[in-house]
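Q: Convert this sequence to structure tokens.
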Amino acid sequence: MIYDPELSLGLPWATTVTSAFNAIAHAAEGLYAPDGNPVIALMAEEGIRASAAALAPLQANARQLEARGDALYGAWLCGTVLGAITMGLHHKLCHTLGGSFNLPHAEVHTVVLPHALAYNAGVASAAMARIARALDVNDAGQPLAAARAIQHLAQRYGAPISLAAVGMPASGLDRAADLAVQNQYPNPRPLERRALRALLQRAFDGAPPEA
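A:
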């Protein structure tokens, strides 16, 4: 596979931003995956850092070749993490929402990620600290620092932060919660239907992430 930044120079800004968050989501889940390892963790943290750091220079100049290269470097790292480990709650929710309600893929990842991280924050503190560190967050030791930083970053760069904004019907939230717990899969925190329904409501409203 060839990653050529020149081929991405014309990528619209909105797609650039949500693609970066889609990549970050792969790496974030790699940090608490049951089959992760120290090498994957290093790649995940660096992938998050590179993907997020590319956004500011690209917002200033979307055709800046070096920044496009940095974004692709981050995407490669995050994609490699995705291919090496088992995904958890975040990807389960996003695939449920996208497949069941015909929602745009990268945008759904952008909206859901902070809430999925918050759901797992209490039992995956080391992963959350590494995500916060990759984002250069000062209060990296706080359980929700990573989740809040992700949502703030999305807001800063004009990405959607609510499921309502990307076309999710409010009437589908109960069904989405039911689907999310139908098949068990590895996740640091057990899947609880009531807690997931509350998570989905916050994501629908664009509310701050909560544990």
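The chain has a mean pLDDT of 95.
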